[in-house]
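Reopening this ticket.

The earlier resolution said the output was attached, but the attachment link was broken on my side. Pasting everything inline this time so it's all in one place.
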Amino acid sequence: MKLFEEFSSVSKKGWLEKVSKDLKGRAIDELNFTIADVQAVSPFYHSDDVTEEVCIPSKTLESVHLGCSVEVSDSQKDNELILEQLKGGANYLSLKINKSYKPDLSILFNGVLLDLIHVVIQLEESEDLRQSIQDYVKDNYKSGLPNLVIVDRSNKDVVIDTLSSNKQEAARFLLERADVIFYSKTLPAQVFLKVGFGHNYVENITQVLALRLLWANMAEAHQVTHDRVQLIIEAYIEKTAISFDSNKNMISFSQIAMSMIAADVDVIFLPAHDCLENEQGQKNSRRYSRNIYNLMTMEGHLGKVESPTKGSYLFEKVAVDIAKSNWDKIVKSRVDV
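Inline output:
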């Protein structure tokens, strides 16, 4: 038995008549808005507007994860921060280690159950440290760590950072990098895409859906199955969306986090709401940000829904238009060369 079988369907014409009545004669076109390169986006879409079935790939990880990002500079202090974050609900650890610092791994990972979380370690051209990490894993985890990935921070074919780009540039940058990646003879197992989220809820969601479509299109163009190279989308809050007023951040971070989950990203990173005063923020501030994720996923069960916006029509239609606009531009640029 399907849930809505007992209800009669409503045509687009019927809905528009209802909308027109509610607007008291005001034209619905007056409510149109613009997102990225897509002009005149209507606030109302119906199944009648779907001319072809759209299959937008869902997230790679089994559920949306809460990320903990640490730039390692002090093994003992960073260990304390990592344990605090993991005990507070984080389940995805992202470590950045510069070549100028060699951490004591036995201290850094003391008490950290690496086999229960996803771990991404970004190194800065250090083969010795890479070998040390591999030796540490071999000595402490007899079955290995399948969820541990060690990447070179400078390798733009594995870590695609679009945080400093606007959303239109991010899409084109992803296409350029994807083209290089899929053309390569040696394909990476995973690619990490860092995406910035701002205050525009609809734009946040449609841009990520468009990025997934563009990635899938480029893979198909190179005759590579889209899951051959897993795309891990890491969502961060844009600096322009962070206020010096921590009280405002407490409210806006919740709204942005919800758009991250609705966009079906793999990992969300939420800074402390007083992060502009102190990069890591106060302990209570970090806990508040983690609890945004905990409430949405553990009590709201939002992270358990696969592709939350599927069937919304508006998000899918706009995402397709954004993807098509960027795809056409890259095709045209090659024709003109």
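Reporter confirms the inline version is readable. The radius of gyration is 22 Å. Residues 155-304 form one domain.
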